[in-house]
Amino acid sequence: MSTDESSYTGSVAAGGPAAVRPLSTLVIRKASVGPMDNNAYLLTCRVSGAQLLIDAAADPDRLMRLVREGSTESRLDTVVTTHSHHDHIGALGALLRTTGARAAAGVDDIPAIEEQVPVAIDTPLRDGDVIRVGVHDLEVIGLRGHTPGSVALLFRGGEDGDHLFTGDSLFPGGVGATKGDADRFAQLIDDVEHRIFDRLPDETWVYPGHGADTTLGAERPHVPAWRERGW
């Protein structure tokens, strides 16, 4: 398990150890859980001890171990769900019951989440909102198309760089699936281009909902080709 920021690669295996990226005042832990190798991210404020989990996707026991890796008190303040698809919410109810954390999700995905999981999402998120983990602000970026209320979270780390958690809206090699719906694809590629690539530098590190990490610089040259191919 990496504890050196310079050695972080974001490579994880389902059920295996977390990859750990310690920044100046925030620690990012990445773990893969469940049969679809979903990535879950635990953000720990090094100043206050507050913790925020991105996507309680599956395997609540493994996620609780991840929480304990960040906090000896098993503290979890917030769970953010990036979107409403079933593989991203499988452990949500269990984590909320065990920890008492508040639940946050994109406002337009809340009905679909609450229909699948018997929980109340008490913090609706909209594009431009800010959600806090300890002393840190995370900017909410709405990325419509994969689902109506998909959100990404942006941590602007100053000297530590920008860190973007994109759920299933942006991956190495393209945007998220839109099931061949041209209108949904157009909305997603527009949001990704205008709300992410037009605003953030190449060095921005991208943490997706499945698989390997990437950077905006690695993906930027390919955006026109994604738009042309239509997926």
Q: Summarize the biggest pleated sheet.
A: 7 strands, mixed
Mean pLDDT: 96
- How helical, in percent, are the residues? 10-25%
Output the helix-strand order.
Answer: EEEEHEHEHEEEEEEEHEEHH
Strand content: 25-35%
Classification by helices and strands? alpha/beta
Q: Give the oligomeric state.
A: single chain
Choose one word for the global shape: globular
Rg estimate, integer Å: 16 Å
- List how many beta strands DSSP finds: 15
The end-to-end span amounts to 35 Å
- List the uncertain runs: none
* Side-by-side strand order of the widest sheet: 1-2-3-4-5-6-7
DSSP helical segment count: 6
Question: Can you walk through the features of this model?
Answer:
By secondary structure, the protein is an alpha/beta fold. 23% of the residues lie in helices and 30% in strands.
Describe this structure in a few short sentences.
This protein has helices at residues 60-70, 92-99, 110-116, 182-197, 216-219, 223-229; strands at residues 19-22, 26-33, 38-45, 51-54, 78-81, 102-106, 123-125, 130-133, 136-142, 151-156, 162-167, 170-171, 174-175, 205-208, 214-215.
Features:
alpha/beta, globular, 30% strand, seven-stranded mixed β-sheet, 15 strands, six-stranded mixed β-sheet, 6 helices, 231 residues
Which SSEs are present, and which pair or pack?
Elements: E1 19-22, E2 26-33, E3 38-45, E4 51-54, H1 60-70, E5 78-81, H2 92-99, E6 102-106, H3 110-116, E7 123-125, E8 130-133, E9 136-142, E10 151-156, E11 162-167, E12 170-171, E13 174-175, H4 182-197, E14 205-208, E15 214-215, H5 216-219, H6 223-229
Parallel strand pairs: 4-5, 5-6, 6-7, 11-14
Antiparallel strand pairs: 1-2, 2-3, 3-4, 8-9, 9-10, 10-11, 12-13, 14-15
